[in-house]
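Q: Could you write out the predicted structure for this multi-component system? I'm mainly interested in how the pieces pack against one another.
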Amino acid sequence: MDEATQIRLTVNGRGHTLAVGPRSADVAPSDTLAHTLRHVMGLTGTKVSCDRGACGMCTVLLDGRAVLSCSLLTVECDGSSVTTVEGLADPETGGLHPLQQAFVDHTAFQCGFCTPGILMSTKALLDENPEPTVGEVQEALAGNHCRCITHYHVLEAVQDAAGRMREAALEPGPTVSESSSNAPERDVATGTR
Amino acid sequence: MAAGYRHIGKATERADARDIVTGRTRYLSDLEVPRMLYGRVLRSPHAHARILSIDTSAARALPGVEAVLTHADAPDWRVGTPRVVRVLDSTVRFAGDSVALVAATTEAAAERALELIEVEYEPLPAVLTMDEALAPGAPEIFPEAPGNVVSAGTPWFGPECLTGVRMGDVERGFAEADAVAEGVCGYENIPNPLPAEPPGVIAHWEEPNKATLWVSSQAAYQDKVVLFFAFGRQVDVRTIGGPCGGSFGSKLMSVQLALQATALSRAAGRPVRLVMSKEEHMAAFVLRIGSRIKAKVGMKRDGTVTAVAGDWLVDTGYYSMTTQAQVAVGCGEAQLVVRSPNWDLRSTIVCTNRTASGIVRGFGGQELKCSILPVVSRVMAELDIDPFDFFKKNYVKPGDGYFWRDGQWYTYRGIDYTTAMDAGAAAFGWKDRWRGWLQPSAVHGTVRTGVGVGVHGNVDIGESVSEAWVRLDPHGAAVIYSAASEHGTGQPSNLIKMVAEVLQLPLDRVTMTPADSAITPFEFGPVGSRGTWAMGGASIAAAEDARRKLLERAAPTLGRDPGDLDTCDGLVFPVDSPENAIRWNAVIGREGSVMGEGRFDPDFTLANCMMTFVEVAVDSDTGKVDLRRVVNATDAGTIIDPPGLENQLNGSLGSAGIDSALFEETVYDPATGRVLNANMIDYKWRTFAELPDMKNVVLETPVDSHRFRAIGVGEVATAPGPSAVLMAVSNALGMWMDEYPVTPERVLAALGKVPARGRGAGGTAAAATDSDDLAAGADR
Amino acid sequence: MRSFRHVRATTVAEACALLAEPGTRARANAGGSDLLGALKDGIYPEPPDLLVDLKTIPGLDAIEADEAGLRVGALARLADIARSEPIRAHWPIFSQAAQAVASPQIRNVATLGGNLCQEVRCWYFRYPAGLGGSIDCLRKGGPRCPAVKGDTRYHAIFEGRGCFAVCPSDTAVALAALDAIVVLEGPGGARRELPVQDVYTPLGTVLEPGELVTAVRVPPPAEEARSAFLKFTVREPIDFAVVSVAASITLRDGVCTDARLVLGAVGPRPYRALEAEARLIGGPIDERAAVEAAEVALAGAKPLRGNAYKVPLARSIVMRAILAALEG
Ligand SMILES: Cc1cc2nc3c(=O)[nH]c(=O)nc-3n(C[C@@H](O)[C@@H](O)[C@H](O)COP(=O)(O)OP(=O)(O)OC[C@H]3O[C@@H](n4cnc5c(N)ncnc54)[C@H](O)[C@@H]3O)c2cc1C
Ligand code: SF4
Ligand code: FES
Ligand code: FES
């Protein structure tokens, strides 16, 4: 058995070593990963809403799996690799990830508070299943709350993104992180799903 | 889509889209102000109690604690209509009421300090329901509300603020009716709008009397105005708005939170951030108003309503800030939906020892209609009138009139929404699915399908004042000065589109200032559906004014009349010889700008309209109600931004909308008045796993609003759905369902599979009314 | 959350010893999806001062299947159980029950041991301290239960005694229908095995201080067994069950030779409807048999004032589960 004195985390590809202790730059044993990301590392893209595991807004990837950062102790993430919404875009060019671009193109958000969590859940899904059915996307997002009801636009955006990512994977050359910024014109009266 | 526009009507990228998807958007709880402290609130376990003593010494002694306030040392700033609620009081009035405030250098220290505060209470008898509150001899919550009835009318709407609808002669109307129904029905599950981001504020007090507040609401300037009065007109208030993580109206009610944060900042001499936890958001912030009506409706065979009479009881919780305003607007909206020459609708606002009610999308009208429509349904059923035909016939038409919120009579000059309703009915297949009252549209084994329809509209699209300025910069860019912050509707981006359209600039050449009351002119804010016409009107006027000034200044240089000139892409040119264009900087100079001013003044002569069709499937074995399909039908005049509009209409499900008929409710412990489901597991919300088929039918019939002939329809999306669900479930089951939400228990009770526990049971425990007297009267 | 010390255990023995140490108020943390919520809500009169991380014990997350049956370590994650090929093939209702829990994010961290040992969801028990202080009750060692006279729509209709909170675990229901055995290990190498439903008491679990669930053993399925797990929720998950039913039925030549009917979220432990099982055995299974068995299963229900609706609801879910098992 041991008591951690320092915590090593890789966040969005960058290594961090944090001391376990009482200062605000440290990790207290009771600190959640969400707290450490937001308040110690300044990565406020990860949102906290319910703080109880019930809304998915704090979703990040921990070693590739979608998890709730409000319900994990930072001390228990020692040695892990974390991806947050800030880590989705191309670190070199700042170009949007195809998933982000699809959300922009479909206006798959309203207030946007739930969007980082939804993006991260979706990222985990597409990493594992590049060609999900709509039902599979719904299932993967069942723990993500969106009060504004962007669900329909999100489902369209995810399908669109999955298609773009599959195409990009087939194409030789640089990966596609650009696309037209103007979404295809849509007819409001056609509805969704 | 309106032809010929460069931006309007196109699915353009929202101005903040990239910030949102990259996590760069900074909501209130993402902001840090130098030397900021963290505030927390100690809350009451009792629904009603006197505070005998508070010992804060241990809390004050805790390292990191910079300020502790109790009712003894809190400033006498007040909120409420009338102004009865203090920053902290010696009496607590609901389980969750504020008892003491703490500011500390860390959240953990503030939290710990709360645990160290010792409070001695003398519990007082509480009134948890309207029935208890109105019972003779009931304990009173405020001396200013004798008999627990809150004074009617709000000064904001003037001396004749609408408190009911009285006209004609209802007795004569009932005598002329072919059928009359009478009954009591309520919408009393007081759901929570529950925006994703919890309410919060950062306050910075500077002596002697300056308060700067970072707010999370869609109407930062309006916060300044409300706070000015709440501070007793003694404080110089500056409000700074930013991206708001959802509001649905509710965050405009962060006033007490703002006062508390300011009081802490004053005491500590440092800025204080006070953000509610989710459980506080759910049990100690604001909910929908509770609504119950005893109504009587008379109707002729052709669907003509001859008289409406009703006593509307409105449960405002422990205090009211805007309930009077909601009653006024609700009464106005009822007249849009039911056209009758004879009215006697009266309202009573009741206060109870529960969480306060505040602004929620639907603003009085949703609550009133959800309550009264089941009674109207009874008469329609009696006369075998198709509800779609009824709504179509009765919805306000050009030339009809209504009393609006200020008590004045207005004549409607908008469009006839019949076409939109017909389009919605066609998209839904209403005529094929409607089988008559209490008739399921299909039965497969234990699954019974039923359909329902509802309609709603609001005149708030033209309410209150908006002001905006548009500044033209020499390099061909424009800045909108407006206190419009983004809260999900996309309105700031829409204002940018409108201004860019007027000035013929690319979208990325138009930006908006922060919603800072020290920078922008007055803005009532994107409340209700006023963003498109009222706010749009001000921004358009400002852009037109700026354009006019620009052309006037260019005229001498170009040697032409201003009327012969036009501008596009930062150039000014004679219309007949565009090749002679000059750049804006040749007009404005390198040093300088052109400022246009715009203002919108209230206009209550246009209304929007939303009709919602729903299909439900009810499992008669389990009592589960599934929402299968939703069709929303409206006419927006001109669509400014198709995906943004569609998002708004899809929002009809959430934010205490359609789902408040299915599973949303605030559950109180009947004994203590504590909220039992103040968490996001027990408060049910719609998941991705369960989405009805959703279709939005939006027509574009140009309307006489502003130059783009558009009106807003966002806010009304939630309102027609809940009563439509109740209607659909009644039809599916073949028996009347009168209570929200239609839980499995209520369905099983209606089917006789469990003993009925009386009204109120099986849902919100605090609700208790008498359902048995809701019966259709005899033919006359 | 109150502050606490945090240690990482490396063996079961070490963890048990730490948890049993007199004078400390230690708690085991597995996935933390339940515990952290309970701590944030401040529901414990005596909050823990030490958390013992079990995830650092190697090998406790193994999933092993052979002719002798299935053995799942307490630290196996629900996502892995739901996905496990052998479990899906031979004990499908266990996989379905694991998949029915919460959300993908939670299943990615939640463990089997934590799912079995999670606290009840009774909304009086869970009332957050931040709203005027937590609510004392019988289960917390207090004098009475405030729920009985309150809103009991989600409470017990069977076997409540003093406390009427229901066992919220979905996996326990499926495991009970599979005759699963829970392996408990305690300080000083103590070890015992119990049928899963016997882990629960009306006021908690039988676990002694320092005792941990280390594994669950499931016997091999009978060759002709068919099964179903149905979970009724207010809305589609993410949601706890209002009623769930696991049914396992063995049919030989059209005749039922063995049956397990277990109801979840109706009592303090997974409730085995023994008489209904007996009613099924010996006859063919058709709609009539299912209806009758469901009738019998609920005959002894004792609803509270606020949850009588759970009786007909449970009855139809039992009936449907029996019929669904035939398809399964
Ligand atoms: C939003 C939400 C929805 C949920 N929905 C469901 C649902 O639908 N169905 C359902 O069944 N559950 C549900 N849960 C509960 C969920 O937390 C558990 O299902 C989960 O499996 C707990 O596992 P864990 O490893 O995270 O437990 P932890 O939180 O780590 O532990 C839970 C408790 O068990 C104790 N414990 C942990 N491991 C052991 C062990 N090996 N031996 C002895 N004691 C131990 C801990 O001390 C603690 O008291 C939900 C939870 C949330 C937050
Ligand atoms: S039902 Fe049990 S857990 Fe709930 S309040 Fe009563 S004793 Fe406590
Ligand atoms: S904030 Fe983590 S799940 Fe809600
Ligand atoms: S966009 Fe507002 S909560 Fe999802």
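A: Regarding packing and overall arrangement: Chain B touches chain C through 52 residues (CB under 8 Å).
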